[in-house]
Specification:
Structural class: mainly alpha
Strand content: under 5%
Keywords: Membrane, Transmembrane, Transmembrane helix
Pfam family, one: T4SS_pilin
Mean pLDDT: 77
Order of helices and strands: HHHEE
Length: about 110
């Protein structure tokens, strides 16, 4: 393979699509799951702080704050996921017809 072969669009796009597919499956998807789990843990931690520290108003306030921000994080992530699905369904792009590994998107019925 020569340097000229690497610069042709077909090879360059195939490499880039493969790279994007790997980034999506190996980094982005696990990161989304991790952030969602982190928001749930943050909420539960705030709930425990609130329940276990009934004598201290400052600790209760901190627990309430953690619960609120945990719920905000969960709501933002669910909202983005919902909006993305609405856009995909509106444009008639079912998830099953998007193949990032092959670099193909099939529109319409």
């Amino acid at each position: 393979m020569s340097l000229l072969d690497l610069l042709t669009p077909k090879v360059a796009y195939a490499s880039f699509d493969d790279f994007l597919s790997k980034v999506n499956s190996e980094i982005i998807n696990p990161l989304i799951l991790f952030l969602f789990a982190l928001a749930v843990v943050f909420f539960l931690w705030g709930m425990l702080e609130f329940i276990l520290n009934q004598q201290s108003e400052e600790a209760k306030t901190t627990g309430k704050s953690h619960m609120v921000w945990g719920v905000v994080g969960i709501a933002i992530m669910l909202g983005v996921w919902t909006i993305l699905n609405i856009v995909l369904n509106t444009l008639n792009i079912p998830k099953s017809e998007i193949d990032p590994e092959a670099g193909e998107v099939h529109l319409g019925p």
